[in-house]
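JOB MANIFEST
job_type = single_chain_structure
chain_count = 1
residues = 483
[input]
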Amino acid sequence: MKKYSGIAILLLIGIVLSAWLKKPEATAPNIIFIIGDDISHDDIGSYGNPLVKTPNIDRLAKEGLQFNNMFVTSSSCSPSRTSILTGRYPHNTGAAELHTELPAHLTYFPEQLRKAGYYTALMGKWHEGKNTKRAYDTLLAGEKLNGLGGEDQWINVLQARPKDKPFFFWLSPFDAHREWSADNFKITHNPDNEVRVPATLLDTKATRKDLASYYNEIGRLDYYIGELWKELERQGVADNTIIIFTADNARAFPGNKTLLYDRGIKTPFIMKWQAGIKSQQQINALVSTIDIAPTLLQLAGIKPAITIQGQSFASLLKTPEADFRKYIFAEHNWHDYQAYERAIRTKDFLYLINLRPELDNGGSIDANQSPSALALKENQAQLTNLQKEAFIKPRPTAEFYDMRSDAAQTNNLINDPKYKSTINQLKSVLQTWQTQTGDTNPLKTTPDWYDRETGKAVPAKDIRGEMPGVARQADKINVKGPF
């Protein structure tokens, strides 16, 4: 508290102004939305990783509701976040590519909460665009204000908030994004015996050290979640506060971030609300992150904006065993490198198309140039087929997986005649989704900004092409598409 006492005083001055807004119902829940950076679902203890140290997140799951099939719409930082903010698919946001900004004409769900009388604040990472400022009473962005992990202001703002209003916090830590900065924090992991090397990586000393540093950042984030929880309890508001933990996309390692397999788009999502959710429950239904906005608005007693394409899953909080979505849709657009992939996933099957098959799928530049990636590149003769995936080109134009017998999605059955009818059906639904929501495949998309081998910037860096959906003004299309 002492470190940022001056900022806290300024917060008090600004925060009191928000008390003049319309007040919502006294029973309206507080909402804390914690979105980790580049964290895979299977790198959390409650999701089956016994080595990563996440006691506070695990406690959230034990005392709340864990979603086992929550999927991001894009395994890419800002497109995933803008999708959550608007409740829209990336190509419908006008910001389908990394580092592109949301347009002013869309509605952001924290903005609706603010207009309804919530005190709203964002702390940490913020790259959804200047127009989103209007959604927050308090916006504290960047490492200078929030510390290396992005959590330094959490307690300050919680203490300084107006006490006569419900609050919504978008907590956006930098943990666990490269470059690593938590190796000297109080929670650490021994690379020799406290990391689990995924099948997509080679088990080397460098890879283990890389993973341990990644785990350390998850551990730091978990620690601050625990501190936040203590403060909520100290203030007596924990019971009527919805606490959500999730992530924008998968870990920044080869075989994960930006990819449209489960190891890229499945994300952790845990929801605790003492006053509204029974403890120790799990949801196996398919849910998309575009469904978060309408759900939280419904729980706050607010009608979702007409621009929201997602649908509320509030009913699952009472009947967690029920089904929800039949289809999950996801997209891979430019993220450091040119790309155009689309996926449709059901309970049992994954079908995806790749309209840039001549390009490899090495992931984001931070994954592509990591020590773990270097270990793969230096030992290609030893690699399994799964480990070679990052380097293969040309790639298939279409892929199909049967998760009933292939949970890891490694056996492409696109040419198996036994599945012809299922493949055609999924292909048809995917095309319907693209048509109804205004998705397009531009001839001239944004090119690579970095060399795929060396990672060095190329002459085309900072040149933008046409984004998917622009030609059909998809940012003005509100059709929800198949559900």
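[summary]
The chain has two domains: 2-325, 329-476.
Residues 205-235 form the longest helix (31 residues).
exit_status = 0
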